[in-house]
Specification:
The complex is a heterodimer. By secondary structure, chain A is of the alpha+beta class. Chain A is built from seven helices and four strands; from the N terminus they run H-H-H-H-E-H-H-E-E-E-H. In chain B, helix 6 crosses helix 9 and helix 14 runs antiparallel to helix 15. The chains are: A alpha+beta, B alpha/beta. Bound molecules: flavin mononucleotide, iron/sulfur cluster and FE2/S2 (inorganic) cluster. Flavin mononucleotide binds next to helix 4, strand 4 and helix 17 of chain B.
Amino acid sequence: LTPIDFSPEMMAEIKHVIGLFPEGKQKSALIRILHIVQTHFGWTSVPAMNKVAEILSIQPIEVYEVATFYTMFHLNPVGNYVFEVCRTGPCMIVGSDDIIAYIEEKLNIKVGGTTADGMFTLKTAECLGGCGYGPVMQCKYKFHEHLTKEKVDEIIEAYREASISK
Amino acid sequence: MTGRKLLLENVHIPGIETFDVYRKNGGYASVEKALKKMTPDEVVEEVKKSGLRGRGGAGFPTGMKWSFLAKPDGVPRHLVCNADESEPGTFKDRYLMEKLPHLLIEGMITSSYALGANLSFIYIRGEFMYILHILEKAIAEAYANGMLGKNIMGSGFDLDLVVAPGGGAYICGEETALLESLEGKRGNPRMKPPFPAVKGLWGCPTVVNNVESIAAVVPIVNEGGDAYAKIGIERSTGTKLISASGNLVRPGVYEIEMGVSVEEFIYGDDYCRGIANGKQLKACIPGGSSVPILPAHLVTKTAAGENRLMTYESLADGGFASGSMLGSGGFIVFDEDQCIVKNTYTFARFYAHESCGQCSPCREGTGWMEKVLHRLEHGHGTLEDISLLEEINKKIEGNTICPLGDAAAWPVAAAIRHFREEFEWHVTHATEAQTRNYGLIQPRVEEIKTL
Ligand SMILES: Cc1cc2nc3c(=O)[nH]c(=O)nc-3n(C[C@H](O)[C@H](O)[C@H](O)COP(=O)(O)O)c2cc1C
Ligand code: SF4
Ligand code: FES
């Protein structure tokens, strides 16, 4: 595993977050730092976690045990866009199963899979806190609500375009 | 008339998320009043008088919780706002924070003053990252306008306010798991005692309150605890945010006066406007996934035939036999087409997924229930599986460190209690259960109420 470097912008962001907590309580910044790491790299790799441990002056295991506990952190590489579709009761009764099946069909992947071009990963999630606006999914911290097949088409199209124009 | 709104009154004013507009519309008056004219104890006294009960689910009186806070000399105290909001069916805190970030900040300042906290936190679920940014923007405005930082409004009171995200874990809504998480650790609930009021964040006395509880402190201080207590019925005072979801014409977040009837809430023009697509009501979970489900005939009426009201007491009327709970106000409505077994299965899966794994009855029991419900739902179950579920339930109940175990057990027990034949149907009609949804073919017409 080759060590990883964080960009100056990332380091500035991380320093800011650490500064929000009192002296000696820098570990409280850990979860937010992992979000920063994942936003920059797309997933949370072991070298990145080691680097975080070094920055916080804590043991790498302290970072691993947190990253493995919280479900938002992807511990393996994922597509550029990860769809996390809620499937808990309130979303299920307004049709989340159909939405999941439709995305599987449309992207030709199963839940947990990534498209061949590495663009999309489909995952399921438990209640995302949008139950009244279901079916709901999240992608890159953005909520997509009141999902229909047409809406799913639009979302996929928009992300495809966004990645081309990048 | 939809009744008085104490929290969401100004929600539709354009720009209300900015400091200036919020302030012009009476915002931060409670800070001004508390810091300039009241002692911290007087603020606590008003909250006690208001009868406010914690809006996070357990309904514990907020004023009483505050008065338990230990105050050893020279030890900092903290107020932590619980914005983890992950109970299936609940999405009110998100709405409040997104639309009225300054209301929460104002509540945090006034409450921190009452508790003598100089460093307070808002712990928000990681999925709400965009709201963390909204809150941070509003906090920066509050600092710039002298509402946070040193010597707020010349009162000598200092307060720093920090927002911290979780990373996707329902259990971090449990207050001691939340504190662990805020310390940068796994969200494993702590053994109590010691309670957070004595040893909380970093071992310091800490109060953990829900977003809505903290926001409610604003009108309580502004109008006085007595005025607040006049709204509502019995020990259910003030207003409550309800997150309405499921098969409704108009789901969403509503602020209700405690005591509105359930019938009015489901069917009334000012609220949810009835069941969607002209369907009929089959069942309702009135307080989030952890509370017992009610079949249609017990939703709008109690077993004794009285009107069921949106209050702590009325929703609990009948106990576990025929009542439920107000809980976090996550009001989930099922139409006649829905399958209760399937819904119960998704909840069991949720709890198995979210169990932190510390106690074996919860870790093993939730996983076991998920498996059994999975096979029942998919037509591979047996009639013994139904009693097995009841047994597993009893083994979990009361045998765990935190209430997640109970929260997982109760909904299954209630679903079986009220919809046993639906569970049995999945066994006796196994082939059909594999291809069709129970609700779609077996509507419980006799119980369904037409309005
Ligand atoms: C498993 C579990 C999850 C919880 N989730 C939340 C939550 O998301 N938000 C919340 O305010 N309280 C939640 N609670 C309740 C908190 O432990 C705590 O009682 C509450 O935050 C206290 O605030 P209140 O008195 O203002 O309601 C949860 C409790 C348990 C056992
Ligand atoms: S009851 Fe479940 S969630 Fe709570 S501490 Fe025990 S294992 Fe963890
Ligand atoms: S159940 Fe899907 S967002 Fe709550």
